[in-house]
Design a protein that fits this description.
The longest helix is centred in the N-terminal third of the chain and has 23 residues, at 2-24. The protein contains two helices and seven strands; from the N terminus they run αβββββββα. By secondary structure, the protein is of the alpha+beta class. Strand 1 and strand 2 form a beta hairpin.
């Protein structure tokens, strides 16, 4: 009996990830931006590149119809901060796959205001930051989400 259960678990662990991965590719984006890191000599260096990942959540709202809802992007707060300066970045770039499969596209997203205050939904007790994405509705024809 144990061997049958183990075999079932192994088959499911091999079969499900492919399906799950296809769905994940439609909900994950890469977050790019500029931040400071310490160089080998201990001096601050400004880098521009990938900072982390983000994922999308659709909260359905039947008041607007069958396919209506609110889209949120979620990422860890530390992805949105300059590591050495300890403050939120002004903006980040979001890299997503294009819906037509022709490559990727970038969108610039504001992170903080001029005083350095996070513009996203911010629960002080939660390590994640959440952004309601009104601009995604304008770009959804081009992007996968």
């Amino acid at each position: 009996m144990f061997k049958k259960i183990l075999l079932t678990v192994l088959i499911l662990s091999i079969a499900c990830p492919a399906q799950v991965m296809q769905q994940l590719k439609k909900t994950v984006a890469f977050v790019y931006g500029q931040g400071h890191v310490k160089g080998p000599d201990g001096k601050s260096i400004l880098i521009d590149g990938p900072l982390g990942t983000a994922f999308f959540v659709l909260y359905p709202d039947p008041r607007g119809g069958a396919d209506y809802g609110f889209i949120y992007m979620v990422t860890a707060k530390h992805v949105l901060k300059d590591e050495l300066e300890g403050k939120y970045l002004d903006k980040v770039r979001l890299r997503m796959n294009k819906k037509d499969g022709s490559g990727v596209a970038f969108a610039e997203i504001p992170v903080s205001d001029r005083q350095g205050t996070l513009l996203w939904l911010d629960d002080k007790d939660d390590p994640n930051a959440i952004l309601q994405l009104d601009w995604v509705t304008r770009l959804k024809d081009k992007w996968i989400i």
